[in-house]
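Exam review. A common question shows you a sequence with its structure tokens and asks you to describe the fold in words. Practice with the pair below. Do the first one on your own.
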Amino acid sequence: MSTAVKKVAVIGTTGRLGRQAVLQLNENNVPARCLLRHEVDKSVKPSIDKDASSAEVAAYLASLPNVEMIKGDVTDEASVMELVD
């Protein structure tokens, strides 16, 4: 059996289910690579509140250990390949 650390690719990162998936992965120390349409805005206050904007959620998730953000679009093959590479 391989002992290599697996990473989980996440799309819909800042959506309701995506953010919960990333939080659960982080709680279990599972590395996640998350696809985002926009760069994380470092000037935005990070938040995971129910009414937080996608930019605030992205900033919060990007601050977590074992979470890597990849800028791209799920409809772009190169972006998806970068996400799963």
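Now try the second one, then compare your answer with the model answer below.
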Amino acid sequence: SSGINAEYGYYVLQGTIYQAPDLHHVLNSRLAGTLFHLQEALDKTLKMSRYDPNKGHYWSFDPPAPSKEEKLRSEPCSQFQRESVDKLIDILTKKYQHFMLRTGPVVTEQQNLKQESKDEPQR
């Protein structure tokens, strides 16, 4: 007897067909994500633990002062970058005004043809 053996599963989202992952890949991905976050938590915990011969082991919950590099990375952008981007956007907006989106309702070609047929006088 010939039977059908399903090799892969597929699913469709918004008209696009995707191959469903097998159990091995799903578990591997979930474990990798879990291990990453667990490693991050352990690294932060290690930075907070302290040892002093007089006090013994203790926890320091005071956040360390951020380095100059971390401060620069945390800023979204500099004043120079903001001004440069604003100038660039202004230049491009003036140059490509005819490509700007219209705020009116979107009319499809089919709707346009229906409207034209209504506007034609009846014979």
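Model answer, second protein: The longest helix spans residues 23-48. Strands lie at 10-13, 16-19, 49-52, 56-59. Full marks require stating both points clearly.
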